[in-house]
Amino acid sequence: MRTTSTNKPRTRAVIVGAGAVAASHLTAFRAFGDEVELVAAVDPDESRLNTFCARVGHVRGYTDLHKMLDAERPDLVSICTPPALHVDQVVRVLRAGAWVWCEKPPCLSLAGYDEIVAAESDRGPYASFVFQHRFGSAARHARQLIAARELGRPLVAHCQTTWYRDADYFAVPWRGRWETEGGGPSIGHGVHQMDLMLHLLGPWTEVRAMTGRLVHDVETEDVSTALVRFDSGAMATVVNSVVSPDEVSRIRLDCSDATVELTHLYGYGNEDWVYTPAPHVTDATRVKHWRGPPECEPSSHTAMLRHLLAAMDAGERPVCSGAEGRAALEFVAALYKSAATGLPVRSGEIDPQDPFYALMHGDVPERLTAAGEETEA
């Protein structure tokens, strides 16, 4: 698939969905241009497809996924379409023999995710989901420090995705609807930061949550909050919003020997991570080691693609796939269930018999969208 010293052919890649997020996949493929060849793009909107193909150059355009799979036989397919389409498209691509790199959220339910995993084969093809914030050098460094207890014992965390989206944003027909988006900022926006929180802190034990529709005239929530307890004993607060004019993405983790804090918006570099030692920590060499790895790789699709291509070469399950890729989606389902029921939800509780397994709103959407005093038209 990939160009190597033995001159193997490049990975033949395709992008499905020529909207805005496709640009991030295109940038990543171009960064690995010696190893990856973008051969085609797919979009049902001919005008958008033609614009994309003209901008890229030397790619064939298709309005039908099935025709593309039959004609191109790609090795890797990026799915950059609305989330309601993911399960059907990912399963079809896997069954055609290609690996999948799919945008977040992976799909609209745990049932859909498990359907995708069932379509995978031993040694591939596999589906990997875009949680690119795991892959910056600073996140790798922080995770190593936390796992080795070099910052002491994890105690308290805060995970914040407070963004702003106006009524025009929700004018896109599939947004703000349970059937086509699967939920509000909990699944569509904050899932990146929540995935990074889980990546840093490990398994969680229980979640207690509230959701509400405070501003926007949509079906789903536009704000959610949660309290989380982790297996380690650490406790966290989580806030997701699309009604916050001062936008920020933030993770703060207080350990017994230091606080580590990440503040950014849509991506970070090493400089966005700050380590503050506890007063009793006086070893300057130790503190200097915390404050950044020697390499500086920003979080990005490009950083993630390197790992996916290596897994393809090895015929191994890639990162953000299988059980690992399911973790953030299970956490979101638990958040919604807790908000709807008013009860704590424990990890692993949502099984195929649970109504929140097949539907993020558990067939009780009205319990998740307590309205504010007024909504945006």
From TrEMBL:
Name of a matching Pfam family: GFO_IDH_MocA_C3
Alphabetical list of InterPro entries matching this protein: Gfo/Idh/MocA-like_OxRdtase_N, Gfo/Idh/MocA_Oxidoreductase, GFO_IDH_MocA-like_dom, NAD(P)-bd_dom_sf
Domain Gfo/Idh/MocA-like oxidoreductase N-terminal: 12-124
Domain of life: Bacteria
Membrane-crossing residue ranges in chain numbering: none
Molecular function GO labels: nucleotide binding
SUPFAM superfamilies in UniProt: Glyceraldehyde-3-phosphate dehydrogenase-like, C-terminal domain (SSF55347), NAD(P)-binding Rossmann-fold domains (SSF51735)
Every GFO/IDH/MocA-like oxidoreductase domain range: 140-260
Name of the protein in its database record: Putative dehydrogenase
